[in-house]
Amino acid sequence: xxxxxxxxxxxxxxxxxxxxxxxxxxxxxxxxxxxxxxxxxxxxxxxxxxxxxxxxxxxxxxxxxxxx
Length: 68
Fold this sequence. Notes:
The protein has helices spanning 14-26, 45-49, 60-67, and strands at residues 5-11, 31-35, 51-56. By secondary structure, the chain is an alpha+beta fold. It has a single domain (5-67), classed as Alpha-Beta Plaits, CATH 3.30.70.1530.
């Protein structure tokens, strides 16, 4: 069964989200990024819809502390 993933932060760019994701992974927290920029064709959509950083529900509190 898949763990429930929740959004812990929304970034204005993929670069910022990737940095935060890397920080979480270095602390042993699995993370993933989602975005809707039409497969990279319209990166400007990241600014309106944001780039979402997700973690497992049970890791959310610790992940938020690390990202902040």
